[in-house]
Write a structure and sequence with these properties.
There is one protein chain. By secondary structure, this protein is mainly alpha-helical. It folds into two domains: about 55 residues, no CATH class; about 130 residues, no CATH class. It is about 60% helix and about 0% strand. The radius of gyration is 19 Å and the shape is globular. The N terminus is likely disordered. Pfam families: GemA.
């Protein structure tokens, strides 16, 4: 009797390949050796090997390696990334939804399909004015279905971490900044900022591709 194999998670397979490429690239760029690589897997990915690592933790490892200088090279035939500020914000929101676990596929192709369904345009680069505003607001509302819960979970993690080992001054300041954000408002921007501060307090890497979501100083 033949036993059917469990279906392969395409995102898991893609992440394994990307992390392996990042390992080689960072080895050439900054001398990342086997010991340092295993340390990243253990401290960021909470596992000794990729094979045993969860997909969310793989995402964290990849984000960490990007922060160290790894750049994902687009495949031939991939849609080019739109570069105008509004398009960058839409893409950042899409990636953030992926980080929250709301979007399974963070690729440009998947984003393009979403843009076409919501904005009725074939390419994000063509979205302008009210169309791109609608995209941004729709994605923010989608994120807010999950974001308050995610922020609350991060706050609980920070508290547990503090009880185990007191936070250092930088971590404590980040946690207080998060609370100040929530005191100022309960909308997307303040929740996003709180999520960012709390993630940093827990030493979790955040993709630089989400920088477009940062709140301007005068608006905080």
């Amino acid at each position: 009797m033949t036993v059917a194999k469990a279906p392969t998670n395409p995102r898991r397979a893609a992440l394994i390949k990307l992390i392996q490429v990042a390992r080689r690239d960072l080895g050439r760029q900054c001398g990342l050796d086997e010991l340092a690589y295993r340390d990243i897997l253990r401290t960021i990915g909470k596992s000794e090997s990729l094979a045993a690592m969860s997909v969310p933790n793989m995402e964290l490892v990849l984000a960490h390696m990007k922060a160290k200088g790894f750049v994902v090279r687009p495949k031939a035939g991939d849609r080019p990334q739109a570069l105008n500020p509004d398009a960058s914000k839409v893409r950042a929101l899409w990636l953030f939804l992926h980080a929250l676990g709301e979007v399974r596929d963070p690729s440009e192709k998947a984003l393009a399909a979403y843009v076409k369904r919501i904005a009725k345009v074939d390419d994000l680069r063509w979205a302008r004015g009210r169309v791109v505003e609608t995209l941004i607001e729709t994605l923010k509302k989608w994120a807010m279905r999950r974001l308050p819960e995610a922020v609350a979970a991060l706050r609980a993690e920070v508290l547990m971490a503090h009880r185990a080992v007191p936070l250092n001054s930088d971590q404590a300041e980040l946690a207080m900044q998060a609370q100040r954000c929530l005191n100022r408002g309960q909308g997307f921007d303040m929740h996003w900022q709180a999520w960012e501060y709390l993630s940093k307090a827990l030493d979790r890497p955040i993709s630089t591709e989400m920088d477009a979501l940062k709140v301007e100083e005068g608006l905080q």
